[in-house]
From TrEMBL:
<dbReference type="Pfam" id="PF12578">
    <property type="entry name" value="3-PAP"/>
</dbReference>
<comment type="similarity">
    <text>Belongs to the protein-tyrosine phosphatase family. Non-receptor class myotubularin subfamily.</text>
</comment>
<dbReference type="InterPro" id="IPR010569">
    <property type="entry name" value="Myotubularin-like_Pase_dom"/>
</dbReference>
<dbReference type="InterPro" id="IPR011993">
    <property type="entry name" value="PH-like_dom_sf"/>
</dbReference>
<feature type="domain" description="Myotubularin phosphatase">
    <location>
        <begin position="181"/>
        <end position="604"/>
    </location>
</feature>
<feature type="compositionally biased region" description="Pro residues">
    <location>
        <begin position="648"/>
        <end position="658"/>
    </location>
</feature>
<dbReference type="InterPro" id="IPR029021">
    <property type="entry name" value="Prot-tyrosine_phosphatase-like"/>
</dbReference>
<dbReference type="GO" id="GO:0005737">
    <property type="term" value="C:cytoplasm"/>
</dbReference>
<dbReference type="GO" id="GO:0016020">
    <property type="term" value="C:membrane"/>
</dbReference>
<dbReference type="Pfam" id="PF06602">
    <property type="entry name" value="Myotub-related"/>
</dbReference>
<dbReference type="InterPro" id="IPR030564">
    <property type="entry name" value="Myotubularin"/>
</dbReference>
<protein>
    <recommendedName>
        <fullName>Myotubularin phosphatase domain-containing protein</fullName>
    </recommendedName>
</protein>
<keyword id="KW-0732">Signal</keyword>
<dbReference type="GO" id="GO:0046856">
    <property type="term" value="P:phosphatidylinositol dephosphorylation"/>
</dbReference>
<feature type="region of interest" description="Disordered">
    <location>
        <begin position="643"/>
        <end position="679"/>
    </location>
</feature>
<dbReference type="InterPro" id="IPR022587">
    <property type="entry name" value="MTMR12-like_C"/>
</dbReference>
<feature type="signal peptide">
    <location>
        <begin position="1"/>
        <end position="16"/>
    </location>
</feature>
Length: 725
C-alpha cells in the first residue's frame, strides 16, 4: 500500500527487517516539566527495533551516528521493561510476551538496558493502534528462542548480498585483525608472544568431545599427554580442564580452572591457588548492586545534596565490588611478578568471576592488552572462548532473571578505573568502552549471543544450512563478531576510539628531532620496578615519600600495615612500585582508596539532562589533545614529504598532510589564526546526547555540578590524606 511504502521510505530498514506494527501522531516526551520541547512523529515496531520517525526533518546530528540505528531507535534486545500507563484510569502494567492489555494506554515507557528511559504519549493517537503497537513491542522483545533474535535473519541476508566481495573467505576473516581463538594458530601465536615454552596447543576437545563449555583448542603443559588429559577431565566440573591464560617473562603462568571433585594439596611454593568464590562477591550480589546504582543514577531524582546522593551511590556497593575485583587482581599480580609464582584461579564453574580477574591481571601486567586489538583479543580469549554465559548473563531471551548479572559491565568499569588513573597507557578511550557495552544489546554479532563455544558453533552450523551458506565457510565471515566496527560506525566515528595521549607500543613520539616509536621489552614488566632500593629511590632516604597518595595503596592492600612492623615481601613490593612514577608501558596497579575509585560518569550519567555540562567534562581535554596530535601528525607527514633526493636539492612544497580519511583523530587541527575553542555541541555526555533519551515522570532536587566537575570540597584534606577502607 501507499502507506506501507511511505513508512518503508522513512524508516531505515536493515536487511531482513520488517515493520510489524506502527502508530501515528505519537508524542515523544523530552522533558517532564514541559511539553514544549516534545517531538511528534510515528512510533514503529519492527522485528529488530523500536523506531520513532520524526514528523519534521531532524536537525543534523553532531554526535556518534550508528549505521544501523537512528537517533531515536532502540534494539528490542535492549528493552528491560515495557510499561503501559493509562493516566485517566490510574492504571499501569508491565507487559510481557503474549499478554493481553485490558485498557487503552495513554503512555508507553521503555526502560532500557543501556540506562535510557523513553516516554511516548498517545493523546492524539488512535487508541486501538496505540494498544497494538505496545503489545507488538512487548511480544517481539521477548523472543521464544535464540534463533529468533534478529541477527540470524540479518547476517544471512547480509552474507548473500555481499558475497561478491569475497569468495569462501578469500578476504581473511572478513578483514578482521582481532584473533578469534577458534583455531590452533591463534593460540600458537599467543604462546610464542609470551615465550611460554612449557606449554602447547592441544586439540583433545575438538568437536567438544570432552567439555561442551571449553573451546575446541586449549593450551596445556607440554609434559601432559592427551590421554592423561582425558583421564583427568572427569575430576573437574563440566569436565573443564584447567585453562592456560598467560605467561610472565619470569616463567610463571596464570591458569584458571573449575572446581575439582577430589581433594588434593598443591603444596608448592612456586604455585599459588586462589578460590574466587570465597573471596569475591557472587553474581547475585553484583546484579543487586548494579540494579541499585542504575536506579540511583537514572530513576531517582537528585535530591537534597550532593553528599546525600554520593552516599546513596556508596550504599549501592557497586564501587565497593569494583574495588574488590581490582584489589584481588593486584594481589594476583604480586604473586606472578613479585614472587615469581604461578597462579591458579579457581571458581566453581570457571565462567564468571574467573573471566573478570584473569582479564584484569593480564591488563595490569601486559601492555599488549592495553592496545585496541590486544584488548579485543583478551575479551575474545578470556570471555567468549572461555565460555562466559553471555546469553544468560545478559538475559537476552528474558527467561530467567536469576541468571542475569552484569559481569562484563563490571569488568569494563574496572578497566575504566585503570584508564582514569593511567590515561596514557591505553590506546582506546572511554567512548570505546561505552560503545562496547552498548553492543551487548545489539543482537547482530556472535560475540555476545551465546553461552559457550559449542553453542555458538552448533547454532552457526545450523544457521549456515538454513541460509544456504557453503559448507566450510568461515563462521567469522558469515556471522562476524563485534570487533569489525565498520558494521556499526563510519571510519570517522571510529576515530573516537583513538586515545590521543597513548604512549604504548607503536605510538609515535619525537626525540632529538626524529620520530620514534616506543618498543616493549621484558624489563617493562617487572625489573624496572625493583631496579633500586626503596631507601635510595628518587635520591631520598628511607621514610621520605614523594608520592604519598600513591603509597597509600599499601594500607588498602594490607590494612593492618604499620611502619613500626617489619615489611612483608608483598608490602615491600607495592611500596617499591608506588614510590616511583608509573611506567605507562609496563606494570600498572590502580590506586584503590575509596576516593580513587570513581563513578564512571560517561556510562552511568550520559543520558541524565541535569548531569550534562555544556562544553565541560573530560571531552574538552580530549578535544584539545586530539587537535594537537592531529597537527603534529600533519607536520610529520609534511616533513617526510620535504626530504629531497640529495642534500643539495631544494624540496618542493608539500600540499599538506595525510588525507582526511586517513587521519587518526576525530577532532582535526584548527586552521591557523583560528582559536581552538570547543565547539558548541560538546558536552560532558559527548558523543552521546541526553535529548529525548531520559525522561522521568517527574524531577525534583538540586543540580550536582560540584560532583560532576570532580570537586571534593565536602571532603577535608585530612580525610583524603587518611583515606581508609
Amino acid at each position: 500500500t501507499t502507506e506501507a511504502l511511505h513508512t518503508f521510505l522513512l524508516v531505515c530498514l536493515s536487511s531482513g527487517e520488517i515493520v510489524v506494527n506502527e502508530v501515528n501522531f505519537v508524542r515523544k516526551c523530552i522533558s517532564a516539566e514541559s511539553s514544549q520541547e516534545d517531538l511528534w512523529g510515528k512510533l514503529i515496531c519492527t522485528n529488530f527495533k523500536v523506531s520513532f520517525i520524526l514528523q519534521d526533518a531532524p536537525p543534523k546530528q553532531s554526535h556518534l551516528s550508528h549505521l544501523l540505528l537512528g537517533e531515536h531507535d532502540i534494539p528490542l534486545t535492549c528493552l528491560e521493561q515495557v510499561v503501559t500507563v493509562n493516566d485517566t484510569r490510574g492504571k499501569k502494567k508491565v507487559l510481557g510476551s503474549n499478554q493481553k492489555l485490558k485498557f487503552n494506554p495513554t503512555e508507553l515507557i521503555l526502560y532500557c538496558k543501556d540506562l535510557r528511559i523513553l516516554r511516548f504519549c498517545f493523546d492524539e493517537a488512535g487508541p486501538e493502534s496505540a494498544k497494538k503497537v505496545c503489545l507488538a513491542i512487548a511480544h517481539y522483545s521477548h523472543p521464544a528462542d535464540l534463533h529468533l533474535l534478529f541477527g540470524f535473519e540479518y547476517q544471512g541476508r547480509r552474507y548473500h548480498e555481499s558475497k561478491g566481495t569475497y569468495v569462501n573467505g578469500s578476504t581473511p576473516r572478513g578483514g578482521l585483525r582481532t584473533p578469534i581463538f577458534d583455531r590452533p594458530s591463534d593460540w600458537d601465536r599467543e604462546i610464542k608472544r609470551t615465550s611460554a615454552s612449557g606449554w602447547r596447543v592441544c586439540s583433545v576437545n575438538e568437536s567438544f568431545d570432552i567439555s561442551k563449555s571449553l573451546p575446541e583448542y586449549i593450551v596445556v603443559p607440554v609434559s601432559l599427554a592427551d590421554q592423561d588429559l582425558k583421564r583427568y577431565s572427569i575430576f573437574f566440573t563440566d569436565q573443564r580442564l584447567p585453562l592456560w591464560c598467560w605467561n610472565h617473562p619470569n616463567g610463571s603462568a596464570l591458569v584458571r580452572m573449575a572446581s575439582i571433585t577430589i581433594t588434593f594439596d598443591i603444596n608448592r611454593s612456586d604455585v599459588f591457588k586462589s578460590d574466587l568464590d570465597k573471596c569475591l562477591p557472587n553474581i547475585q550480589d553484583i546484579q543487586s548492586s548494579f540494579v541499585k546504582v542504575r536506579h540511583i543514577c537514572v530513576i531517582d531524582p537528585f535530591e537534597e545534596s550532593e553528599e546525600r546522593w554520593l552516599s546513596s551511590i556508596e550504599t549501592s556497593r557497586w564501587l565497593e565490588h569494583v574495588r574488590a575485583f581490582l584489589k584481588h587482581s593486584a594481589e594476583i599480580v604480586y604473586c606472578l611478578d613479585g614472587k615469581n609464582a604461578s597462579v591458579i584461579l579457581q571458581e566453581e564453574e570457571d565462567r564468571d568471576l574467573n573471566c573478570v580477574v584473569s582479564s584484569l591481571v593480564q591488563l595490569m601486567l601486559d601492555p599488549q592488552y592495553r592496545s585496541l586489538t590486544g584488548f579485543q583479543s583478551l575479551v575474545q580469549k578470556e570471555w567468549v572462548m572461555a565460555g562466559h554465559r553471555f546469553l544468560d548473563r545478559c538475559n537476552h531471551l528474558k527467561k530467567n532473571d536469576k541468571e542475569e548479572s552484569p559481569l562484563f559491565m563490571l569488568f569494563l568499569d574496572c578497566v575504566w578505573q585503570m584508564m582514569n588513573q593511567y590515561p596514557a597507557a591505553f590506546e582506546f578511550t572511554e567512548t570505546y568502552l561505552t560503545v562496547l557495552s552498548d553492543s551487548m544489546w545489539i543482537p547482530l554479532f556472535s560475540t555476545f549471543l551465546f553461552n559457550s563455544p559449542k553453542q555458538r558453533a552448533q547454532h552457526l552450523i545450523d544457521f549456515a544450512k538454513n541460509k544456504a551458506i557453503p559448507a566450510g565457510e568461515d563462521q567469522a565471515v558469515y556471522f562476524p563478531p563485534v570487533w569489525d566496527w565498520s558494521q556499526q560506525f563510519s571510519t570517522k566515528d571510529q576515530t573516537l576510539f583513538n586515545n590521543p595521549m597513548y604512549v604504548g607500543k607503536g605510538a609515535a613520539c619525537v626525540q632529538n628531532g626524529e620520530v620514534k616509536t616506543f618498543t616493549r621489552t621484558k624489563r617493562n614488566y617487572s625489573s624496572s620496578v625493583r631496579a633500586t632500593p626503596s631507601s635510595l629511590r628518587n635520591g631520598l632516604k628511607g621514610g621520605e615519600e614523594t608520592l604519598t597518595r600513591r603509597g597509600s595503596l599499601l594500607s588498602e592492600l594490607k590494612p593492618d600495615f604499620s611502619p613500626v612492623k617489619v615489611e612483608s615481601p608483598s608490602e615491600r613490593f607495592f611500596r617499591d612500585l608506588f614510590s616511583q612514577p608509573a611506567d605507562q608501558r609496563g606494570l600498572l596497579i590502580p590506586l584503590l582508596m575509596p576516593s580513587h575509585v570513581a563513578l564512571w560518569k560517561l556510562y552511568f550519567l550520559r543520558w541524565v539532562p541535569e548531569a550534562c555540562i555544556p562544553k565541560g567534562g573530560p571531552i574538552t581535554a580530549f578535544h584539545k589533545l586530539s587537535q594537537l596530535v592531529d597537527e603534529i601528525e600533519i607536520l610529520q607527514s609534511q616533513l617526510r614529504q620535504y626530504k629531497g633526493p640529495s642534500p643539495g636539492s631544494t624540496p618542493l612544497p608539500s600540499p599538506g598532510g595525510p588525507p582526511v580519511n586517513q587521519r587518526r583523530m576525530y577532532f582535526k587541527a584548527s586552521p591557523q589564526n583560528d582559536p581552538p575553542t570547543p565547539p558548541d555541541f560538546l558536552t560532558s555526555s559527548f558523543p552521546f546526547t541526553p535529548m529525548g533519551n531520559l525522561c522521568r515522570r517527574s524531577i525534583h532536587g538540586t543540580p550536582i555540578s560540584k560532583f560532576l566537575n570532580g570537586a571534593r570540597i565536602w571532603l577535608s584534606t585530612e580525610t583524603l590524606a587518611n583515606d581508609t577502607v
